[in-house]
Each structure stands twice: as structure tokens, then as C-alpha cells.
From TrEMBL:
Keyword terms of this UniProt record: Membrane, Transmembrane, Transmembrane helix, Transport
Membership in a protein family: Belongs to the binding-protein-dependent transport system permease family.
Highest taxon, organism lineage: Bacteria
Residues annotated as domain ABC transmembrane type-1: 185-385
Major subcellular location class: membrane
Gene3D superfamilies: MetI-like
Record localization: Cell membrane
Keyword hit for Magnesium: no
Protein name: Osmoprotectant transport system permease protein
GO cellular component, one term: plasma membrane
The keyword Membrane belongs to this UniProt entry's keyword annotation: yes
GO term, biological process aspect, one: glycine betaine transport
Length: 393
């Protein structure tokens, strides 16, 4: 093989494949509109590039930081450098998007709306993926991951508290609906966590029983699998008629708030969706305990109850928590659809926005839902990792 052939191969070997994809995607993001400016919340917007959307000095600084961060993604650099590039890129985007309304909206104009464009969202995705790639390569400890998450939450909360984002259209929508936002947020969490707790109460014993009795497992888990295949809107619809009849014929049920629409059908549907991951993971975790460990527990004179709580459940806990993590993220997303039947939650803003053709109102419901799912997943991932790293007693 000639030296001319070897040199390009060597050069190509110094490039990170994912970094190349992210850099090319980031370049596309820089070419797409960075912001959308509209005369009011309903009319079509005017696309503005990053250079046009920001004051000259801010635009130049932002472009320099983004270009440098994308450049650091290209070579096979260390994970800490990639982590710094991801953080720098996201920080530059956050600071830049908050400056756009000040540059594009005339002072005192309360009707104009300015929001992020496709280029902004694509760049956020690029740098978020770069950040996720760096943290995965670093194999951070659970405490370090939680610290990174806490730092990110504090930084974003600080920007919100400072009023940096107040000019953005989504914050204008929030200002008009602040009490409703927190009320629906609390309802969203209640539905997601409440259905998870109810499913855990039923699913854990059911999973243990399935691990003990293969016949029961063969009968129960396929039924729960079928439940998972039912679309969420269809499931909510299936709950409405029987619950409406129950409320009409049982006064106590109506007094407890059980009716065909509202939180009750949403809670029951979410409970049914939650059973499979919890029961299946519990059965797998219990069945996966090594036989030698069980024999050692029997040799120590443990009763079946003691063996379950002192040996089997602690060893199966990481697998069980993995199922709970799936349920939590799943339920946070599915609660959004529950707003269609009066269940409340952030989906209320999503469907109001769709009905009014107001994208900012849709984002007011969608972005907190994504944030809740992300935070919940990171917290449970860190807990699972901590348990897996802890040596058995």
C-alpha cells in the first residue's frame, strides 16, 4: 500500500464518526432560521438567521463559540473536552436566544412574539447529543451525574429568574397562565406518580408470584403485553363508558370523583399500562438470582420470607428499578394525552395550542413534559447505577 493511501486513512482515523455527524448537522443548524418573529401569536412568522436575529457583537461571539464547539467534536478528543464543548454550545445558545427579542421587538410592543426557530432547536439537539456522548464515555459516578444535573437545573433556573428569557413568546404565554401552569404541573405529577405507585403495589407481588409459578407467568404476562399494544387514546376511551355507568349507578363512586371523564379514567389507564414493566422486571430479577446464593440462604436457615426480603429482592432491585424507570418516563408522556378526556396536566396547554394554532402554547406544555421525563430518567438511572456498584452484603 502506498504512503499516499496510508495518510488519508490515518487522517480519517483521527476523526470521531459521531463528531463528524454532529458537526455536519450543526452546520445545517447554523444555516437554518435561528428565530421566528411574528406580529402576534397567531400569524405566520418571519424567519431570521442567527446573524440577523442578534446584535452584531453578540452574533459574532455566538458564532465563534458554536464554531469552536463543533470543531472540538470532530477529532477524537478526550471526553472532558467534549463535555466542555457541549456545555459551551448549550450555554451560548441559551444566552443568544434570550437576546433575540431585545433586538427584534420594538420597546413597548406587547403583541409581537419571538421564538426559537428550527436552527436553534437543531443546534440544541446537536450539543445535547455531544454532552450525552461525553458523559457516557466518562462513565461518571452516580453522584457526579446528579451533580451535573443539579448544576444544569440551577443554571437554567438562574436564567429564568433573571428575566433573561422573559421576551420569548413561550414566556409570554406562561405569564398569562402562570397559576394554571403550576396547577396543571402538579396534576401531571400526581397522575404519573400516583399510577406508578398503584402499579408498584400490585405489580411487585404479581411479579414475585410469576417468578415462583411459571404457569401463572405464562398466563399473566401475555395479557399484560396485549394491554400495552392498545393505543393510549383508545384506552382512555375504553375507560370512559364503564366509569360513567359506575358513577351514574353508585353514588359513592360519584362522590369520590369517579366519572367517565377526568382523572379517574386516566389514572386507571396509566395503571394498566404500568403493570407489565413492573411485573415482568420483578419476575426477571427474582428468577435471575443465582442458585448458589439461594442455596447459601437456605443453608443459613432462612425462612422463605426472610430469603425473599433479605436476599432475592435486594439482588433483584436494580432490575426492578429499571422497570419502574420505564414506567415513570412512559407515564409522564402518556399523561399528556389524558388532557383530551379532562385529566389535566401539561397536555391541557398542548391541546389548547393545537386548537388555537398557537405553537408557543403547545411548547408551554411539551417542554416541561420532556424536562420532567429527562430528570426522572436521570435520577433513577443514577440510583440503579449506585445499587449495581454497591457490593452485596
Amino acid at each position: 500500500m502506498s504512503s499516499a493511501t496510508v495518510e488519508p486513512a490515518a487522517r480519517g482515523g483521527r476523526l470521531d464518526p459521531l463528531g463528524v455527524v454532529l458537526a455536519v448537522t450543526g452546520l445545517a443548524g447554523l444555516l437554518l432560521p435561528f428565530a421566528l418573529a411574528r406580529a402576534n401569536r397567531l400569524v405566520a412568522g418571519t424567519a431570521e438567521s442567527l446573524v440577523a436575529a442578534l446584535p452584531p457583537g453578540a452574533a459574532a461571539a455566538t458564532l465563534a463559540v458554536l464554531a469552536a464547539a463543533l470543531g472540538l467534536a470532530l477529532p477524537r478528543t478526550g471526553p472532558w473536552l467534549r463535555l466542555a464543548a457541549g456545555v459551551a454550545g448549550l450555554a451560548a445558545l441559551a444566552l443568544a436566544i434570550g437576546l433575540v427579542p431585545q433586538h427584534l421587538v420594538a420597546e413597548g410592543d406587547r403583541l409581537a412574539r419571538v421564538g426559537p426557530g428550527a436552527g436553534f432547536w437543531l443546534l440544541v439537539l446537536v450539543f445535547a447529543m455531544l454532552l450525552a456522548d461525553a458523559t457516557a464515555r466518562l462513565s461518571l459516578s452516580p453522584a457526579a451525574r446528579l451533580g451535573l444535573l443539579a448544576a444544569a437545573i440551577l443554571a437554567v433556573a438562574g436564567l429564568f429568574a433573571s428575566g433573561h428569557f422573559d421576551g420569548l413568546s413561550i414566556l409570554r404565554e406562561y405569564a398569562n397562565r402562570a397559576p394554571a401552569f403550576w396547577r396543571e404541573g402538579a396534576q401531571h405529577i400526581r397522575l404519573a406518580v400516583g399510577s406508578l405507585a398503584a402499579a408498584a403495589i400490585v405489580g411487585l407481588p404479581l411479579g414475585i408470584a410469576c417468578a415462583r409459578r411459571p404457569g401463572l407467568r405464562a398466563a399473566v404476562l401475555p395479557v399484560l403485553n396485549i394491554v400495552q399494544t392498545v393505543p393510549s387514546m383508545a384506552m382512555y376511551g375504553l375507560m370512559m363508558v364503564p366509569l360513567a355507568l359506575l358513577a351514574a349507578h353508585v353514588p359513592l363512586a360519584a362522590a369520590l370523583g369517579i366519572r367517565g371523564i377526568g382523572a379517574a379514567p386516566a389514572l386507571i389507564a396509566l395503571f394498566l399500562y404500568s403493570l407489565l414493566p413492573i411485573a415482568a422486571n420483578t419476575a426477571i430479577g427474582i428468577a435471575g438470582v443465582p442458585t448458589s446464593v439461594l442455596e447459601a440462604a437456605d443453608g443459613m436457615g432462612m425462612t422463605p420470607r426472610q430469603r425473599l426480603f433479605r436476599v432475592e429482592l435486594p439482588l433483584a432491585l436494580p432490575v426492578i428499578l429499571a422497570g419502574i424507570r420505564i414506567v415513570l418516563v412512559q407515564n409522564i408522556g402518556l399523561v399528556t394525552i389524558a388532557a383530551l378526556i379532562g385529566g389535566g396536566g401539561f397536555g391541557t396547554f398542548v391541546f389548547q395550542g393545537i386548537g388555537q394554532a398557537a405553537t408557543d402554547l403547545v411548547l408551554l406544555g411539551a417542554l416541561p413534559t420532556i424536562a420532567l421525563a429527562f430528570v426522572g430518567a436521570v435520577l433513577l438511572d443514577a440510583l440503579i447505577d449506585a445499587l449495581e456498584r454497591t457490593p452485596p452484603p
